[in-house]
UniProtKB/TrEMBL annotation, chain A:
Key words, A-Z: Molybdenum, Oxidoreductase
Domain (Aldehyde oxidase/xanthine dehydrogenase a/b hammerhead) ranges: 29-143
Gene Ontology molecular functions: iron ion binding; oxidoreductase activity
Name of the protein in question: Xanthine dehydrogenase, molybdenum binding subunit apoprotein
Record organism: Rhizorhabdus histidinilytica
Coiled coil: none
UniProtKB/TrEMBL annotation, chain B:
Source organism, top-level taxon: Bacteria
Pfam families: CO_deh_flav_C, FAD_binding_5
SMART domains noted in UniProt: CO_deh_flav_C
Name used for this protein in its record: Carbon-monoxide dehydrogenase medium subunit
SUPFAM superfamilies (UniProt xref): CO dehydrogenase flavoprotein C-terminal domain-like, FAD-binding/transporter-associated domain-like
Species whose genome carries this gene: Rhizorhabdus histidinilytica
Chain ranges of the FAD-binding PCMH-type domain: 1-176
UniProt keyword terms in alphabetical order: FAD, Flavoprotein, Oxidoreductase
Length: 789, 284
């Protein structure tokens, strides 16, 4: 009986080679269209008035002057939208979870700076912005909840619908750890603050909609990672017939999770297009993106680790508070940060006892959402910095303490205290490889001699396992009661070429190349003979390009569908070659008898026979040379690896410079090593940003201070050092070809390496850094404090 | 982030530009546009007319004299950075230009535009102040020369009167050896603090010295006390540290998200000391 988790047979040929990305000529010459390149006849432009206050009651919105401005076709406030759509209901079927409803335009209450209050549609964006200035809003300011402390200690509510500002509390793992902490030789603990950051894709969000009243068709162009989800959500939220909706994704200019949500603006643009009967476009500008596109990563981890005399971990305690903002984002909600985090907080170490609690609170800030590495980044950072601290206390090297605690071959399968079953992983090999790449002993000598010159070098390392290729099993483990599978359709054309349609959308990851490599190997043909069609919900169904899942779901779906078509090819070839179908293999562009490539036919000939030569068909042959198949892995697909960073801290100014970074990645069999390394480098650049530069700062009134990229500091090419990468390959048995996902690993674990390196550099001064980013101001202050004491 | 509507004019002579500016009190000259245009896109400024100076060839001229150079206001940072005479005669400016934004901005951003904008974190106002330059302003009633010390009045504030145009800068060649130090969050960012330090050394004794701090106050600050302290003194490590401390003593430093006043002053002191240290070691 076939199931969605069946692992098809794919024999790697093209898989494993760094063929050039077929999308690059279009991207590098600017010929590939992004959403802002979509130009439709009669198209109108949207500008949105966003709340200037963090928390207020809307007394009145006067649109009359705006409506009279040149070029203005329509202006709406919340009252106009409410009858058409009640807002985005973000709920999770979890006990105690407090759902929120975010209106498309604020109704009575605005809950954060940047929340949409009114919208203008005009013949140009500039005219629409001119009209925004004429909107007269009367907002009565009410008390603001600007911090998690305020959310939990004052009686003020950030959102009237969230009692006590508590969105969710969970303590799924509550071992009694008091004995372990009592018996520990060393207890290390800290209170780690990770910053509120923005994924900041190069292309901001955007949405274009056209409603054709003659047919009822609603066509949407979306800069999204989840087009199928958006389509269904439009149907549900706007009561629109789903079969008449198409969501097209042109080239997407980066997403990193920020575009993996249903955003209020997307529904709003659909409503405007339906109302006006003309195409309507909204392209977010950078300032809107900083104000309103989902934020991420802001957690407080109060963590403690108990360690025995030999450096073995006895227990880990973590209390996580997530600053989740004013609403839940659909579909990930506040759970995407702290709650996800505590469920993987001990991986990949043997930690016998765990007590972890997580609280998500509402504040008058922009709602949080997914960002590469989601809630895993923050606890990984805290854990790894504490492990280094324990190593220092015990006089162990940071590599040795990890070796003594990592899950070993003989422990497998190992089930963590949170319930994650780890079936494979090259954890010890990762540590050994990192240590060799860095040249640990030599580094310590260099560090020592630099210190004598008043220069402070530091080394940080981090070991991770990544829940990759996230399907239903992984989502359910993380307490998201969501089903997640994809489909792909594979067709062999009459001339032996292969066409694949997939629901996977691409935002620069090179899927058109890697999925072609997968399909090519499924049929034993060259990758040039395969075309991948993606980018429309008219194609296949996909959950979205999120959670390091496209390699896994691409291989799984294409593999299963190809297997069905391969059976047809085998059947014809068996008849023509007078062999049994089981004896027929497809490789090297031939369909041939196993172990006898001479006894075979060109792939194209067999395909042609299926279409045009009935005489070659076996009895009862069904000539449908295409198949659609779903895939969802049978269990959680785990990748693993480690990162290291060497930094130099200028203690006189507090400036941290990253000298070099290292990565060891084990994502099973790599489809295209060049693309894997690109993913690693990109994620490591973001890690440098999160730990040293990026921070969305709100003041006490809930005003966002960092409203341009002059204040919100993204790492540039000059801030990212050379990165040395090594690979290990532990194939997955759950995915065709042994493939695993890996897109998020660098943002899960490299922040910890950078944070650890800063702490290592300053350890000799008795300085610890637990608040990030480790800006010069913070580092300087910490050094000054240590000098005073 | 789209511009509000504005009129646009492209004069070909300075006189024409002055007439246009005189005709409309809300008109603003447009140089390289690297600061003004983003401010307009954020709708923090809405001039009624932009008078584009890009076609006035006179404003791009550079006159190399025996003791000074006169640099046209519309010379781009990139052109100045690539200019042999700037490198040979004004090494401080040459050094500082490496810190001005990124290549793409330097290609369009102009010397005069940066001075007229007078961002406290920009490098060129500090350089012109350090070298005791004079800013040449042309108005309806002719030309006047304003010493840098009088020209920069605050963050975004200068001595330019309505209707006047910054046409050139005169920079005398300095007999001092200079060192430039900057602290910024990222390479190419506006400075959190910077120091321009010039010395005339006799052996290791400081015959003359000039110390200016940038981005610490609202405008370039000259550290007179530290200069007086160093004159006639050998540049020992102790003297260097003390001069750095004195340079910021009593300075009311500005505050932003990157640095509060005390931290900013500490950095400035470090930068002054580092510049002096380099000069003492002959590393300039």
């Amino acid at each position: 009986m076939a199931t969605k988790a069946d692992v098809a047979n794919i024999r790697p040929q093209s898989i494993g080679t760094s063929i050039p990305r077929r999308e690059d000529p279009g991207l590098l010459t600017g010929r590939t269209p992004y959403i802002a390149d979509i130009a439709l006849p009669g198209m109108l432009h949207v500008a949105i008035l966003r709340s200037p206050v963090a928390h207020g009651r809307i007394v009145g919105v006067d649109l009359s002057a705006a409506r009279a401005m040149p070029g203005v076709e329509l202006a709406w406030s919340g009252a106009d939208v409410a009858p058409r759509c009640a807002g985005i209901m973000a709920s999770l079927d979890q006990k105690g979870f407090v759902a929120t409803v975010q209106p498309l335009l604020a109704q009575e209450e605005v809950c954060f700076i940047g929340e949409a209050i009114a919208v203008v549609v005009a013949t140009s964006r500039a005219e629409a912005e001119d009209a925004l200035e004429k909107i007269d809003i009367d907002v009565e300011e009410i008390p603001v909840v600007a911090t998690v402390d305020a959310a939990m200690t004052t009686g003020v509510l950030a959102n009237a619908k969230v009692p006590a500002n508590l969105v969710y509390r969970s303590d799924r793992v509550t071992d009694d750890v008091s004995d372990a902490f009592g018996a520990a030789a060393v207890v290390v603990e800290g209170c780690f603050h990770t910053p509120r950051v923005s994924a900041s894709p190069m292309e901001t969000r955007g949405f274009v909609a056209r409603h054709e009243w003659t047919t009822g068709q609603l066509t949407c162009w979306a800069a999204t990672q989840m087009p199928s989800f958006i389509k269904t959500m439009i149907a549900i939220h706007l009561q629109f017939p789903e079969q008449q909706i198409e969501v097209i994704t042109p080239q997407v200019g980066g997403g990193f999770g920020q575009k993996a949500h249903l955003h209020p603006e997307e529904l709003l643009v659909c409503l405007l297009a339906i109302e006006l009967g003309r195409p309507v476009r909204w392209i977010e500008d950078r300032q809107e993106n900083l104000f309103r596109a989902t934020h991420a990563k802001q957690q407080v981890n109060e963590m403690a680790l108990a360690v025995d005399q030999e450096g073995r971990f006895l227990a880990l305690r973590d209390r996580v508070t997530t600053d989740g903002g004013a609403y839940n984002s659909l579909p990930w909600t506040h759970l995407v940060e702290g709650h996800c985090g505590i469920l993987v907080v001990t991986d990949p170490y043997r930690v016998p006892a765990l007590a972890a609690e997580t609280i998500s609170v509402a504040t008058n800030k922009c709602p949080i959402g997914a960002y590469r590495g989601v809630g895993f980044s923050a606890p990984t950072l805290a854990r790894e910095v504490l492990i280094d601290r324990a190593a220092r206390a015990l006089g162990l090297s940071p590599f040795e303490i990890r070796r003594r605690n990592l899950i070993r071959e003989e422990d497998l399968p190992y089930t963590t205290r949170a319930g994650l079953r780890i079936r494979e992983g090259s954890f010890l090999a990762t540590v050994d490889r990192l240590e060799a790449m860095i040249g640990y002993e030599a580094f310590r000598e260099r560090q020592e001699s630099a210190r004598r010159e008043g220069r402070y070098l530091g080394l940080g390392i981090s070991i991770f396992s990544e829940i990759s290729g996230i399907g239903t099993r992984a989502l359910n483990f993380l307490d998201f009661p969501i089903t997640s599978h994809d489909t792909a359709t594979v067709r062999v054309e009459p001339t032996g070429k292969v066409t694949v349609t997939t629901g996977i959308v691409t935002a620069g990851q090179g899927h058109l190349t890697t999925l072609a490599q997968v399909a090519a190997d499924a049929f034993g043909v060259p990758a040039e003979d395969v075309t991948i069609l993606s980018g429309s919900t008219s194609h296949a169904v996909g959950f979205g390009t999120v959670a390091s899942r496209s390699a896994v779901f691409g291989a799984g779906t294409i593999g299963r569908a190809a297997e069905m078509v391969r059976a047809k090819m085998r059947a014809i070839a068996a008849r023509l070659l007078q062999a049994a179908p089981e004896e027929i293999e497809l490789s090297g562009g031939m369909v041939h008898v196993r172990d006898d490539p001479g006894r075979g036919l060109p792939f194209a000939s067999v395909a042609g026979a299926a279409y045009f030569a009935e005489g070659t068909h076996p009895e009862d042959f069904d000539p449908t040379m295409e198949a659609t198949a779903a895939f969802d892995p049978a269990d959680i697909v785990l990748a693993n690896g480690g990162h290291a960073a060497i930094v130099e801290v200028d203690v006189a100014t507090g400036q941290v410079r990253v000298e070099k970074m290292f990565a060891v990645e084990d994502c099973g069999r790599m489809i295209n090593p060049m693309i894997v390394e690109g993913q690693i480098r990109g994620g490591m650049a973001q890690a440098v940003g999160m730990v040293l530069l990026e921070e969305l700062i709100y003041d006490d009134n809930g005003q966002l201070i960092t409203t341009t990229l002059q204040d919100y500091l993204l790492p540039t090419a000059l801030d990212v050092p050379d990165i040395e990468i090594a690979h290990l390959e532990t194939p997955s048995t759950l995915v065709p070809g042994g493939i695993k996902g890996m897109g998020e690993s660098a943002m899960i674990s490299a922040p910890a390496a950078v944070a650890g390196a800063v702490n290592d550099a300053l350890a000799c001064l008795g300085v610890t850094i637990e608040q990030f980013p480790a800006s010069p101001r913070r580092v300087f202050a910490a050094v000054a404090r240590a000098e005073r004491t | 982030m789209k511009f509000p509507a504005f009129a646009y004019a492209v004069p070909e002579t300075i006189e024409e530009a002055l007439e246009l500016l005189a005709s409309d009190a809300d008109a603003r000259p447009l140089a390289g546009g690297q600061s003004l245009l983003p401010i307009m896109a954020l709708r923090l400024a809405a001039p009624s007319m932009l008078v584009d100076l890009g076609r006035i060839d006179m404003l791009r001229q550079c006159v190399v004299g025996p003791d000074r150079m006169r640099i046209g206001a519309m010379r781009t940072h990139a052109a100045n950075a690539a200019c042999f005479d700037v490198w040979a005669q004004l090494p401080l400016m040459s050094d500082a230009l490496h810190h001005v934004a990124h290549q793409a901005v330097r290609n369009r951003g102009t010397f005069g535009g940066s001075l007229a904008h007078a961002d406290a974190g920009a490098e060129m106002p500090l350089v012109v102040s350090a070298l005791d330059g004079a800013i040449i302003l042309r108005g309806p009633h002719g030309e006047r020369s304003v010493p840098a010390a009088d020209f920069f009045q605050g963050h975004y504030t200068t001595a330019i009167e309505p209707g006047e145009l910054l046409v050139a800068v005169e920079l005398p060649y300095s007999p001092l050896q200079w060192a430039f130090e900057e602290f910024a969050r990222r390479s190419g960012d506006l400075a959190v603090a910077m120091a321009a330090v010039g010395v005339d050394l006799d052996g290791d004794v400081c015959r003359d010295v000039r110390i200016l701090l940038g981005s610490v106050g609202e405008r370039p600050i000259r550290a007179h006390d530290a200069e007086a302290f160093l004159r006639g003194r050998p540049l020992t490590p102790g003297a260097i540290t003390e001069a750095g401390r004195m340079a910021v003593a009593g300075v009311a430093a500005r505050s932003d998200i990157h640095a509060d006043p005390a931290y900013r002053a500490s950095i400035a002191a470090v930068l002054v000391s580092r510049a002096l240290d380099r000069l003492a070691r002959g590393d300039f």
